[in-house]
Amino acid sequence: MLLTFEKMGAWRWGLGLICALVALFLLLPIVFIIALSFGDSRWLIFPPPGWTLRWYEELFADPRWIESALTSAKIGLIVTVFSVALGLLASIGLVRGRFKGKAVLRTFFLTPMVLPVVILAVALYALFLRIGLSGTLVGFVIAHVVIALPFSIIAISGALETFDPAIEDAAVVCGASPWEARLRVTLPAISHGLFSAAIFSFLISWDEVVIAIFMASPTLQTLPVRIWGTLRQDLTPVIAAASTLLVALTILLMLAAALLRKGKKA
Amino acid sequence: MSSTFALARPRMRKGTGMILPALVLLLAFFVVPVALLLSRSVTEPELGLQNYRELLASGTYAKIFFNTFLVAGLVTLITALLAFPVAWALVIMPRLLAGLLFAIVLLSMWTNLLARTYAWMVLLQQTGLINRTLMQFGLTSEPIPLVNNLTGVTIGMVYIMLPFMVLPIYGVIRKIDPAILQAAALCGATRLQALGRVLLPLAVPGIASGALMVFVMSLGYFVTPALLGGTSNMMLAEMIAQQVQSLVNWGLGGAAAFILLVVTLSLYALQLRLIGEPKGTA
Amino acid sequence: MTAPYLHFQAVRKTYGDVVAADRVDLEVPKGEFMTFLGPSGSGKSTTLYILAGFQEPTSGDIQLGGRSILPVPSHKRNIGMVFQRYTLFPHLSVRENVAFPLRVRRQSQAEITQKVGRALELVRLQEFEERMPAQLSGGQQQRVALARALVYDPPVLLMDEPLSALDKKLREEIQLEIRRIHQETGVTILYVTHDQEEALRLSDRIAVFNAGRIEQVGSGQHLYDQPATRFVADFIGDSAFLSAEIESVQGGQAAMRFPDGTRLGAVPLHGAGAPGQKAELLLRPERIGLSETGSGETAALEVTITDVTFLGSSTDVRAETAWGEGLFVRLPFSDPLSQSVRRGQRLWVSWEANGAHLFAA
């Protein structure tokens, strides 16, 4: 009866306690940075002796923070477009195509996901130094598309696999041109896959640190690089303020995704 | 590209056209650069295996390998111990509680990596919350060094890896029919016996899949060890970055990368063989 | 009947406002094959789950061998159960599945080997010992589940629609197996099903559940011949109901009138009926006959034939009364009319007055 909560007796409390502790462990850092970002102690004393918005003011007063956030957003959006487009094409080929070595190719497409990022970062760093892409926007985008593509392919091909191509044939039989059928039947049917591919791709680029550290130049820095650089100098509460904004962004995205799922079910 | 993929599906037999853009991208910016890096391990500073000899012979590097495997192993073990009860609870708890717990797991997973790591740096420092709480309750008289060492790295990594362990175990337990556990109870099994003889064995595929994923990710992890670890307790990923960036020793960095790559891909192959493709859990 | 072996006493289970089981009273003697029959949601499974310990009753008691089992947790009740879904432990072989109850009881290996062998022999699956559940068919899995439930000699064996996932032919085959096993082991069985044919085929007695209550308990024959309520009459066997009005009541029998004015006297009446009250007359299709003239019969009604279906051993004839209600008659092959009856014909249905039943609305 271990899968029936009501019949677990005292074990319920044991399990509940472990979960409460793990939840505490998972929430602690998040709650902690949010509190620190509003605390007026430069030395990060907790609980803070008083409350202030000073760190947010400092954050917004420094144009370099804004600039790096904009850079991150720009790179993230471009990466999203390419990752979803390439992912869609590759997924169609992988799901519907019939050719030898399809399974091997699929595994190959997913490899960047398992390879330690540091290897790719170092390898691309060397290559980009040679071909002059180091420290450029193009370099950033290429590198991030490489690591975002597997997630895009998983999300889109997952959606495509559950969509019966016979429905598309049915649309054509009903009189739609093949392209019309794709646009009006297939694309809407896999839109949730495209959407999660887009979210994954953006977040991967937005949060990516390792490649960014190698790729960045003094004039082109993403937000993670900026945080990384500051972190290595000192643990100023300004980072807490920046982090809090990032947490808020995460919560917003999660809520949006949850709402979208709910809307889909209704 | 003008061939339809609807009615003309048979013509897709050679339909690699769709795949071409992604394939070209990965060949040019994934396979080629990695291959170039690896080739440098046997060509720099001169042709030969001297880099590998150095890596395997030196005590410094042996310690780095040891640290890496030790931390990855510890992180895998601890996350498995924590994740099993959490995944189990997620399956059986009342909807609202389970939803809340799930949201917390996802929030911790999706929160910016550096934000999380920063929080742990502050929490774990000498004058940090953890140490002051421990001292307040008289559990220790002096601050325990929790950061800039492997303890800090392990704590930070457990935090990051926990969701990657919870999700696959959750996926497996969710598919177990509760009636099987009812049958075990009617057969006379106590809760402990049902746990040990039925629930745990049935959850093994999820635990194994999560463990492999967490172990592989931990082996090559860079950010957390770099920020929470000390310079005297380096791990492999950090060492590769350092060789290349600070010491400009591409040969040795490439050799270390090659070893990491071989270990990672072998474990990935093992996972594919045993469990199948990883699901999108980023 | 000796002192009840298994005794349900006013068992009641509610979920908020929903009553799942309401005052279930039942006595089951040792060794009986008792079936709970009823539509889904009628409380039969709930009653079984309470006995198994998966649910607690809101009130009432269940006694086994004179002692209440409610304070005893499931794993100590020593009850055997075969579930509707396949519940073999997927990671254990057939042998280890059957051995499981003995292992958790810490019995010796010698004992385990012997008892497992015997149990598998009982369900005739000895040669499948080494197989994993996934390598078995559905019927085989349920037979292994049966062996697992019997291996520790439980005082009661519960079966919750164990054959519902199987196709008809296999189901009948395993029903025979279950009967044989009941005879060989003498175990008391509580069997839940919504299939009346299965209930009739297997049981010593049947408890008919409806809306959380037991409507009637008795042998299949008894339920068929003497249904206590319209629900039982409808659920057991084939039936047609014609509307009627009660004219007078005397000693459990009533005189009645059909809507067209046809009168019948001395029909057995069920339920409290008063003159002037609406009622329904039960007619069993195999207990009524067709003839070209209505004369000489105690009860007869003129009808129009609307459909004739030849079924080999019998012919089903659909007919309509003068006021437009439908009924059907099952003519045996031996009845000469079964060859000649045609649609649109006007014929008489007839029956023995005491063979029909009137249910007060």
From TrEMBL, chain A:
Domain (ABC transmembrane type-1) ranges: 69-257
Signal peptide: none
Pfam family, one: BPD_transp_1
UniProt KW keywords: Cell inner membrane, Cell membrane, Membrane, Transmembrane, Transmembrane helix, Transport
Topology class, membrane: Multi-pass membrane protein
Transmembrane segments: 12-38, 75-95, 107-131, 137-160, 194-215, 235-260
Main localization, broad class: membrane
Source domain of life: Bacteria
PANTHER family according to UniProt: INNER MEMBRANE ABC TRANSPORTER PERMEASE PROTEIN YDCV
Family that this chain belongs to: Belongs to the binding-protein-dependent transport system permease family.
UniProt protein name: ABC transporter permease
Organism, scientific name: Aquibaculum arenosum
UniProtKB/TrEMBL annotation, chain B:
Transmembrane segments: 65-84, 96-115, 150-173, 194-227, 247-270
Pfam families named among the record's database cross-references: BPD_transp_1
Subcellular location: Cell membrane
SUPFAM superfamilies assigned: MetI-like
Family: Belongs to the binding-protein-dependent transport system permease family. CysTW subfamily.
Species of origin: Aquibaculum arenosum
Topological category with respect to the lipid bilayer: Multi-pass membrane protein
Residue ranges annotated for the ABC transmembrane type-1 domain, each copy included: 65-271
Domain of life: Bacteria
UniProt KW Phosphoprotein keyword: no
InterPro entries xrefs: MetI-like (IPR000515), MetI-like_sf (IPR035906)
Protein name, per record: ABC transporter permease
Main localization, broad class: membrane
Automatic annotation (TrEMBL), chain C:
Entry protein name: ABC transporter ATP-binding protein
Species name: Aquibaculum arenosum
Lineage: Bacteria, Pseudomonadati, Pseudomonadota, Alphaproteobacteria, Rhodospirillales
Superkingdom per UniProt: Bacteria
InterPro entries per the UniProt record, alphabetical: AAA+_ATPase, ABC_SmlMolc_Importer, ABC_transporter-like_ATP-bd, ABC_transporter-like_CS, Mo/tungstate-bd_C_term_dom, NA-bd_OB-fold, P-loop_NTPase, Transp-assoc_OB_typ2
PROSITE patterns named in the record: ABC_TRANSPORTER_1, ABC_TRANSPORTER_2
Residue stretches making up the ABC transporter domain: 6-236
Spans traversing the lipid bilayer: none
Keywords: ATP-binding, Nucleotide-binding, Transport
GO molecular function: ATP binding
Pfam families: ABC_tran (PF00005), TOBE_2 (PF08402)
